[in-house]
Inverse folding.
């Protein structure tokens, strides 16, 4: 039984300072090249190095605008992490397959895990389809060659499922960032106790937790106390 770390790579250039936030929005809505000296995926690199030092593996989910750079790919290979699709245009099976193939062509290998960008309501970028419809995605998964879905619900007590075809689905996650978690019920101590007896998904966004020393302290405590696995 273990902690399953899920990293959603939402912002190509982070959120701070303001100029990097603007470039991230430009990349998402239109186009901006991936330039590592300007801080492309800088925050993700910091988190991956931290995980690699502790020999903790993670699923790393990428959007079209956050495709991994050579440096990030090297860190992922070094740590044995798994690349997944952070689905944006979830209108149809065809749009899902198109995004999956784009990511596979970029990394030169198969992608079998996916998550959804956004939980319904807000639209995050020109290509983003806002509705959150997990039953549809799970239904499409086999046709798309996908074997694992990590969902966005905010009740980490919900147990995962495995269907007849072997598709694993974790409907919910323990969101480390408080805006998406009932911090009175789902505390760090709750997660530590729960993950000692079953697999629980821990969801993080690198730019958010790096901006908060208390969240980084919680993340470090979890890594030091629990087994981490894929």
């Amino acid at each position: 039984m273990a902690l399953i770390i899920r990293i959603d790579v939402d912002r190509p250039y982070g959120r701070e300072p303001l100029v990097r936030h603007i470039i991230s929005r430009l990349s998402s809505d239109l186009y901006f090249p991936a330039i590592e000296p300007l801080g492309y995926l800088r925050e993700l690199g910091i988190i991956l190095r931290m995980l690699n030092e502790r020999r903790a593996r993670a699923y790393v989910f990428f959007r079209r605008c956050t495709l991994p750079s050579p440096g990030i790919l090297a860190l992922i290979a070094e740590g044995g992490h798994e690349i997944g699709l952070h689905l944006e245009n979830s209108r149809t099976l065809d749009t899902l397959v198109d995004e999956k193939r784009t990511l596979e062509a970029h990394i030169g290998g198969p992608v079998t895990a996916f998550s959804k960008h956004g939980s319904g309501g807000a639209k995050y970028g020109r290509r983003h389809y806002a509705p959150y419809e997990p039953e549809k995605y799970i239904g499409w998964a086999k046709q798309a060659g996908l074997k694992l879905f990590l969902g966005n619900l905010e009740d980490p007590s919900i147990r995962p499922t495995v269907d007849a075809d072997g598709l694993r689905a974790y409907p919910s996650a323990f969101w480390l960032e408080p805006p998406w978690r009932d911090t009175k019920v789902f505390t760090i101590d709750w997660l530590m106790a729960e993950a000692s007896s079953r697999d629980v998904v821990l969801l993080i966004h690198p730019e958010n937790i790096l901006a908060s020393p208390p969240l980084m302290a919680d993340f470090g405590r979890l890594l030091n106390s629990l087994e981490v696995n894929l």
In short: The chain has a mean pLDDT of 95. The beta strands are 3-9, 58-62, 82-87, 113-116, 148-153, 161-162, 168-172, 174-175, 200-204. The domain at 3-225 is CATH 3.20.20.370 (TIM Barrel).
